[in-house]
Amino acid sequence: MRKQILSLAMLICLITEDAFAIHPYKDYVATPASYHLEYDSINISTKDHWVLTGWYCKPQVDSSKFLIILAGTDAGNMSYDLPIVQLLATNFGVPVLLFDYRGFGSSQTFAYDSNAIGHPEYLVDVDAAVDFARHHYPSRKLILYGRSLGASLAIIEGCRQSGISGIIAESPYVSQQLLKEHFEAANPERPAIPIKSNDLEPLANIINFRSKNLLVVHGAKEQYILTSELKPMVNKIPIKNKRFLDFEDCDHLELPFKQTLEFERALQIFFSGV
Questions:
Q1: In the chain, what is the straight-line distance between the N-terminal and C-terminal CA atoms, in Å?
Q2: d(CA 142, CA 126)
Q3: C-alpha–C-alpha distance, residues 153 and 122, integer Å
Q4: How far apart are CA 72 and CA 57, in angstroms?
């Protein structure tokens, strides 16, 4: 029987975050122990000598050949993704490596622009998490799962790094410019600032996609990341084993919570093909 794994308090925190604004939180709202998960606290060093904080979260019964690296959103910190981790660990028996980008949680302090869509340094942080997992858990197949900004970074990482078995991208933007246009049309008083770097542009990188497996999931009610733009981008990614799913009645980052069973089925199909 499925276990109920999502707390109402955490759900409220997740879906009320400011969308598409870099807003790190230093304080953790929970730890993996709060979700009955054993874990190791780790430090991850980046190539440019930043130090990131991470949690290696362990399922009670480790029944998977995979290790999931979870790249989070542009707000909060890694503790906000613990309900997703509990779902993965409890219902799929897979360990999850969480980490905080520089400036988030207890990772090393970093000067950021709160109106920027992202910073290329965050992709360096994703690189470091993937390298850490590859070095410390060499027997595992690596799955990179990104959410929102992390989803866009995950797609770009899948274009840059070989050896990642699969990418799961939950509501990635297609390009910074398109995201800026949609966001500012609905929020004219709030600027969204693209950073000139191909390290933040999924559409500019997809021709080089290296991972052999891709799952992109998206809420059909999203205002700023449109199905009409995201689906054609996925279609252009030059691999066979890819899947794009629109979830009805879901806004940004709501789908694991509002359509949990359908989300789990999509993950099961993905894992079975990797």
A1: 25
A2: 13
A3: 8
A4: 15
* β-pair type (166-170, 66-71): unpaired
CA-CA distance, 201 to 85, in Å (whole number)? 27
Calpha distance 155→201 (Å, rounded): 9
Number of CB atoms found within 10 A of residue 62's CB = 11
The two three-digit tokens of residue 159, written as one number? 């274009």
What does each C-alpha distance from 246 to 4, 44, 131 come to in angstroms?
A: 23, 34, 31
Tokens representing 35? 């979700």
In the chain, the domains with their CATH numbers are 8-273 (3.40.50.1820)
Give 60-118 as a DSSP string. SS---SEEEEEE--SEE-GGGGHHHHHHHHHHH---EEEEPPTTSTTSPP----TTBS-
Instruction: For residues 231-235, give the mean pLDDT.
Output: 98
The amino acid that residue 84 corresponds to is I
pLDDT in tens, 143-202: 999 999 999 999 999 999 989 999 999 999 999 999 999 999 999 998 999 999 999 999
Q: What is the mean pLDDT of residues 103-117?
A: 96
Q: Count Cα atoms within 13 angstroms, Cβ side, for 159.
A: 23
Percent of the chain with pLDDT over 90: 91
pTM of the model: 0.94
Extended strands (E) in 200-258: 213-219, 241-247
